[in-house]
Amino acid sequence: xxxxxxxxxxxxxxxxxxxxxxxxxxxxxxxxxxxxxxxxxxxxxxxxxxxxxxxxxxxxxxxxxxxxxxxxxxxxxxxxxxxxxxxxxxxxxxxxxxxxxxxxxxxxxxxxxxxxxxxxxxxxxxxxxxxxxxxxxxxxxxxxxxxxxxxxxxxxxxxxxxxxxxxxxxxxxxxxxxxxxxxxxxxxxxxxxxxxxxxxxxxxxxxxxxxxxxxxxxxxxxxxxxxxxxxxxxxxxxxxxxxxxxxxxxxxxxxxxxxxx
Length: 261
Hints:
- By secondary structure, the chain is mainly α.
- The chain has helices at residues 2-26, 56-60, 75-94, 100-120, 125-146, 149-172, 179-195, 197-220, 233-257.
- The model has no long low-confidence stretch (mean pLDDT 92).
- Its EC number is 2.1.1.-, 3.4.23.43.
């Protein structure tokens, strides 16, 4: 069952990844993600169906447009393969639980936001805000199936706690933390809180830890200065992933260390 689920999620990730390429390209520009159909930006020819197969088409075409031979960025197959891997790993970690669709959706959102934030230093409301609604509906459905209303209450606390934390940081140091980060924090808090207190706390802490370590490394290698703008969204998303994967184990280890476990 688990192997079939992981494979199905990987295939789903390839298909969704192809659409996310459109999202990453068009949303920052304020364009529609449904029309017009995808076309080569150089010659304007619409992509044929056989040229729109995730990863495989790019390999067959050797990274070039069929019509004008303009290069096609390797970002496209990498994002498709990355989405497939992330959805497969999400299914492998959580298994066939009612909340899995909510976290698969969050994983897709994470891919799009990471790509956009790295390139444009933005976390678009067009992606983040609707994700609150989708995530809430999926988590409410999962809680109803399991009659687990405590997890839903924890999700609400997690949403409020991380939103308030990041809002306080944004107000305390204007320019240091963007309000896009504040909005994303609430979304991540909702999902992490649903899983438990340990994923919530570890996920929140890990974002600052990883972000700090990367910042120090960039300064040490002179790839960034003290005033350089470094997008924090990817670190928030990576921290949330760590909270899901190792949160309970790290929390239990800490409790044992201080003699409370």
